[in-house]
Amino acid sequence: MSNNIITIDGPSGAGKSTITRLAAQRLGLRYLDTGAMYRALTLHCMRKGVKLDNPKAVAEAAGGANLRCELALEGPMRVFLGAEDVTDKIRTQEVTRNIHYVADVFEVRDLMVRMQREIGREGNLVTEGRDQGTVVFPDAALKVFMFATPEVRARRRHAELKAKGVEVSYEEVLEDISRRDYLDQGREVGALRKARDAVELDTSQLTPEEVSEAIVKLAKSRLMMRTRKVERPKP
After folding, report:
1. pTM for the full model?
2. Alpha-carbon distance 41 to 19, whole Å?
């Protein structure tokens, strides 16, 4: 598998984070949550009092953020702003509502793509996001596009938020997911798209364990196919 890079793209609430982490652990690869990177920059801009509807101000603030990610074979990725671990602090509804302002800025996406490709230079990576298979790693060995109905995704996200003690209604979460879908698909740079060679997985009726197992099987099958091509003797 070329560089052992697997990309998993899909809309908000499709289960990418949980499933990508499970698949990475089972394959013995590193896990990259690119959404957490955009969330961290959003938190940074909010703390700086940046006018989020001002792309130039957002780009300047994001460029000055000391963003750092720690990837591991076990456990979630940790995200830092300077020396501060903000892994949990970026998961608020306020950050979620404002992330599109930051993610829509061309300079920010360019910065993130370069950072993500630098992380991917070592290979051995399962990465999830919106544009991983189409923009960041177009030559990835395996590309997966996950999806589920908005209602299913809203129920999942609502349950996650309730488990964390966040008071929010299902209707609010559904409205937020529908808005995120519209913004993600209409973004000029890094829009949510399925790569032409991506494998589609509908997760609506599947558990995270079932989806991650399907990805593991796909990855191992792809690795075997590529290994055979390399080992095939010349005529």
Report:
1. 0.86
2. 24
